[in-house]
Amino acid sequence: MSAAVSPTLRRLQRKVWKWVIDPYTTPPPAEQFGPYERGDFFRFTVLHRSRRSRARVGQLHTPHGVVNTPNFVAVGTNAALKMVDQPRANDAGLELMFCNTFHLMLQPGADVVAAAGGLHRFMQRDRPLMTDSGGFQVFSLAHGSVYDELNMKTRKRELEGRLLRVTEDGATFRSYVDGRILTLTPESSVQAQKALGADIIIPLDELPPYHIEPEALRRSVYLSHRWEARSLQEHLRDVRQQAMYCVVHGGVDESLRRLSAEYLTALPFDGIGIGGSLGKDRQELIALLQFLMPLLPADKPNHLLGIADMESIEQAVPLGVDTFDSCYPTRLGRHGTLLTRSRGRVRIRSRQWERVFEPVDEGCGGFVSRHHTLAYLHHLWRAHEPLAAALLTLHNIQYMCDEMRRLRERILDDAL
Fold first, then answer.
1. Which residue intervals define the domain tRNA-guanine(15) transglycosylase-like in the entry (predicted)?
2. I want to staple 27 with a disulfide (CB 3.0 to 4.6 A). Which of 9, 130, 229, 304 is the partner?
3. Each residue's pLDDT tens digit, 359-395
4. Is 166 exposed, middle or buried (0-12, 13-18, 19+ CB in 10 A)?
């Protein structure tokens, strides 16, 4: 904001907002944020734009190194990649990793991570990190994921009572760790992410379900805009060499997506997140991106939240998407599936691999393909050895990093 607001006044404003604000109240205009000089600690450089599509090759420059784009961002929910340590992930080529603020706030606590010197020191990672706001996890307590919602895999009684209420102030929920009742606000989310110290942080937003009435979705978009503006104000008070991405909302409603993109891209965010409900299937996702991507600024990086299967990536990169995060590739590994170029998807428990004394993936130079055969991995899985899940997960990270590198090469050759 152009003028400083005292903490006492902010608390009073929040108490008033909590009870009397109109759900369609517009968020503060861009002029209220004043001039913002972006430091050289974070910048995005476009190296090449394809002549065939909107695809581009770029570089994110952060305090902890460079991220080549387009790229895959692995999810390390609790400041750890399940089954894979940081040196192995580095060797596989993983340049950017995503950690979840919600889980880290509850265990071990953002203050503990801060006392350790921040996430990088705490988890011994010397490459860039992203953290989310915690909003996705909080609102998933109310209705599960879109997959759960569409397939009714999550029983309502399992979720009831966890998200207690949503007000203008924030979201109040019950901790799954110790049962405490906590309120996540735009300000407290940013403060937690300051304590964690990631290179890229995300403002608090509301995540509505896929099945929602149009007017409820519109109210949600307005609420997210007000929360994101408050998050940005909190961030700009103490930047700490962190970049903040906004999150564009609106579900699959094109008019709301346009409204959200126009408002949020006018504010001094460092990058653009694409979030909210992204459709019931890949076809709806791609249709949404075809509409939305031309509305986003060409000089800022963008990130597609929660999507990182190669089928979606291969269709989204030509539309101009820069980075993708998901736990999908690593989860597949932990559950016994290898992603390979030479054999497609390999379910390692199948007896067909029992006597295949060949590398996992022909032409792959990763640790697993260099050192282990399909027969050995099949044996480990059948014997219930934990090493099996670790090696499959590591290979899938290698696969994703290799595929993203190939996509960048194709863009540079104007073949994509």
1. 54-415
2. 229
3. 999 989 999 999 999 999 999 999 999 999 999 999 9
4. middle
